[in-house]
Amino acid sequence: MNNDDRRRRRVIIDSDVANEADDQFAVVHALLSPTLDIRGIIPAHFGTQRTRESMRASRDELERLLDLMDRTGTVPIADGAPHALASRREPIDSPGARLIIDEARRGDAGPLFVAFLGPLTDMATALLLAPDIARTETTVIWIGGPPYGDREYAGTWPEFNLRNDIAAANVVFGSGIAVWQVPSNIYRLTAVGYAELRRRVEPHGAIGAHLAQGVVDFNTAHHPVPVESRALGDSPAIALMLDPHSASFRRQPPVRFTANGAYEAADVGGEIRVVEQIDVRFFLEDMFAKIAEFAP
Fold first, then answer.
1. ∠ CA 228-57-138 to the nearest 5 degrees?
2. Using CB atoms within 10 A of its CB, is residue 129 exposed (0-12), middle (13-18) or buried (19+)?
3. How far apart are CA 154 and CA 265, in angstroms?
4. By percentage, how much of the chain surpasses pLDDT 90?
5. 143 forms bridges with which residues in the sheet?
6. Do the beta carbons of residue 24 and residue 210 sit within 8 Å?
7. Which residues make Cβ contacts (< 8 Å) with residue 239, sequence separation at least 6?
8. Staple partner for 119: which of 9, 83, 164, 167, CB 3.0–4.6 Å?
C-alpha cells in the first residue's frame, strides 16, 4: 500500500518518560507515525518519591529511546520544569514552556496539540507566562485525573499525574484553553500482557526488546502483587492526535481540584472534553504494526 498523503498534524509531547514503563510506548508510537509533525518532546518531572532529579531521569530515558531508534538529533528536546509549581501564581520558566509558547503563537501553522503524559507543570507555566495562548488553536491532551461522579477509583490517591502538580492542573483547567482529558478509569483499560509483548514487541529490534523488558522490570520492582500485564495508559494521547475520532467524549462543565485531588465545580475556565471511551484496538494494533515495520 502506497500512502503519499503528506499532510501532518503539529504536536508537542510532554512526558515523565522515566516514571513507569508506558510513556516509552507512547513516545515511540508518536515517533513512528508519519502524520505527526513532532515539534519537540519535553522531559517532565514526576515528583520526588523515587529521585530528586526526576526531570533529568526523564531526559536520560528519552535520549536512550532516541539512541535505540537511531533517531538522536532528529527531534528537538526541551527540558521541562524540575519540580511542581509552588503556587498557582509562580511559573517555573523552562525551555519546554518556551517551546509551547512559541508553537502556540504560530498563527499561520494551523492547530497545535500538546500531549501531557504526566503533570501539567509546563503547560501551566506557559499559560502563566503567556496568557494569550489560551485563545490560540491549541488543544491540551492530558492523561490524568480521577474518574468523575460515582465511578469506582482504583489506585493511589490523589491520582498520580494530578498529585504531582495540583496547582498546575488548576491553572490549566481555569485558563479557558481547550482541554481533552483522559481520566484514570479510561487510561487503565489499555492493558497488554507479557505474552503479547513477547510476540508483538520484543522480537523487533533493540527498541522492541527495551520496551518489552521495561514493563517486566518495572512491575517486578514496583508492583505490590504478582502480575503479568500492564496498562499502556499514556498511549490514548497518541491515538487522539492520530485520529480524534477514535474516542467518544462528553462535555464537562468547568471544574477545579481540591488540595486532596477531588473535583469541585468552578466558576472560571471552559468546558472540558472528557474521554469516555477510546478505540484501544486501533492504537495498540497501529503501534505494534509500526514497531514491527521499523525493526531491521
1. 90
2. middle
3. 23
4. 93
5. 182
6. yes
7. 246, 247, 278, 279, 282, 283, 286
8. 164
Cβ atoms of residues 184 and 151 within 8 Å: no
Burial bucket for residue 149 (CB in 10 Å: 0-12, 13-18, 19+) = exposed
Q: What is the CATH number of the domain that holds 44?
A: 3.90.245.10
Domains of the chain: total? 1
* The CA-based dihedral angle spanning residues 124, 97, 247, 146, taken in that order and rounded to the nearest 10 degrees: -40
The C-alpha cell 516514571 sits at 19
- The pLDDT tens digits of the residues spanning 219-232 come to 999 999 999 999 99
With respect to residue 266, please indicate whether it lies within any of the assigned structural domains. Answer: yes
**Residue 142 lies in domain:** 9-294
**Average pLDDT, stretch 195-223?**
97
Supply the pLDDT for residue 197.
98
Summarize pLDDT for 230-274 with one digit per residue, the tens.
Answer: 999 999 999 999 999 999 999 999 999 999 999 999 999 999 999
Q: Which residue has the cell 510476540?
A: 199
* pLDDT at residue 84 in the model: 98
